[in-house]
Amino acid sequence: MASGQHHPTETRAGGWGWRARRTRGSAGGRDKGISGGQRRRVSICMEILTRPALLFLDEPTSGLDSAASYHVVSRIARMARREGMTVVAAVHQPSTEVFGLFHGLCLLAYGKTVFFGPAADTNQFFALSGFPCPSLMNPSDHFLRTINKDFDKDIEEGMEGKKITTAQAIDTLVNSYKSSVHLEKGGAVVKKEERPSFLTQTWVLTKRSFVNMYRDLGYYWLRFAIYIALCLCVGTIYYNIGHSYGSIQARGSMLMFVAAFLTFMAIGGFPSFVEDMKIFGRERLNGHYGVGSFVIANTLSATPYLALISVAPGAIGYYLTGLQSSIDHFAYFAVVLFTTMMVVEGLMMIVASAVPDFLMGIITGAGIQGVMMLNGGFFRLPDDLPKPVWKYPMYYIAFHKYANQGFYKNEFLGLTFPNNQAGGAATITGHEILRDYWQVQLGYSKWVDLAILGGMVVLYRLLFFVIVKLIEKMKPMVQRLRFRSDAPSVHIAENGSAGSP
């Protein structure tokens, strides 16, 4: 073919058996994605995932040809019968085959109910009202033409051969409906299906989010590669630093880099999370799941990737540097690195809820982390920080404080270094270094620092939960206030109060 080759893929659109087609042009491969009709079918499939008892579909056949429209509506009708669902669909000019699939029909004309009852009775109703459907004509076309008065010059012919306007035809049909048996029939009671439980929602969202993270190279895989490169750089720069007096500063600098800059890279997944937030916002409005399910699912799905990033690159930097080689010390190092990255991701979730634009969100998140980094106790020792604001409360709010102190306690306690200071002892212990050199708080163990970081992981996600809930509550109020402020004001001047121009 002159336009290129067509390679059908085995991609199912919503599990309905339609296949997406990938088009590759002659100038090179270019993925066009799915068509508009396939997107419409996927959107319908998304709405029926939760098996709602009542499903509203606004023009589900728009943009589809007659064959596709028939297959879509037939599948929906079959599913409605099988699941006991009630489907309300607004359809423009359905074909004869599609019209035959309707169980009930409601015809509205300018705020009036023309007919509401079984679709099979519509022809008889119109015939008895004086507007029979001509043979070989699509019934839906006849009904719409009869009650559409947008073109009022068109005239309908009544029972006795009289010429009447469309408005008169509508009044005749409305009166006929009011006196018909269809008005007296009550609708069947809708049986409400049980919605998926909280655990089911969380499990399904976790699997979906895990697959999305796996497929999106920018979410974790690119960060994984950059972390390996950075840890190789750190490991070679600080390679086998030994136990000299100069290694004290080197160890502290290396651990600070891990606590500050490696965790800072966690903001790289922010653009992908913003896209997840857009999907969450749409599905949340449709009532598919709650905020709690989304938060827990996002945390669970991210855990394996963050654990991999903490262990594999962390081991490269840790052992190349020559830090304490016991497995328990490295395990604590990896757990603190993992927890700190979870804290940063929770912080970026909060930023995403308040700043939906990914570029502004990255700038905001980087600024917040920069301020915390300055107060972490490395660039400026804790006792030297100005007490208003920077020491109290910023020093204790910054997660870098607990990450740095956890790393320092894990590394320095139990070690002894030669003392180069004149007049001092020949050696200096790790405890003395922590107390005097790094000004670390030794009143509690390193596990308390880890527990505080774990509490921050939970706290930041709870704050995200609360912020999303508040936004949901406040958005309608803000929109009402904006509508009132945008409403035009009307000023009425009394006669004679103003001169004529």
The tally of beta strands, per DSSP, is: 12
Mean pLDDT: 81
Order of helices and strands: EEHEHEHEEHHEEHHHHHHHHEEHHEEHH
> What proportion of the residues is helical, as a percent range?
55-70%
What gyration radius follows from the Cα positions, in whole Å? 34 Å
β-sheet strand percentage: 5-15%
Shape: elongated
Quote the distance from N terminus to C terminus. Answer: 73 Å
What's the number of helices?
17
Give the biggest sheet: 2 strands, antiparallel
Keywords: Membrane, Transmembrane, Transmembrane helix, Transport
Domain ABC-2 type transporter transmembrane: 200-412
Transmembrane segments: 217-241, 253-274, 295-318, 330-351, 358-379, 450-471
Subcellular location: Membrane
Summarize the structure in words.
With 501 residues, the protein is mainly α. It has a domain at 198-476. The protein contains 17 helices and twelve strands. It has helices spanning 36-47, 66-83, 96-99, 122-128, 139-147, 166-178, 198-215, 217-237, 247-264, 270-285, 291-321, 327-354, 358-374, 394-397, 399-412, 430-437, 446-486; strands at 5-12, 19-24, 54-58, 86-90, 104-109, 112-118, 156-157, 163-164, 388-389, 392-393, 416-418, 427-429. The chain has a two-stranded antiparallel ribbon. A hairpin with a 6-residue loop joins strand 1 (5-12) and strand 2 (19-24). Helix 15 runs antiparallel to helix 16. It is elongated, with a radius of gyration of 34 Å. The chain starts with a strand and ends in a 15-residue tail after the last helix. Residues 1-30, 154-160, 186-190 and 492-501 have low confidence and may be disordered.
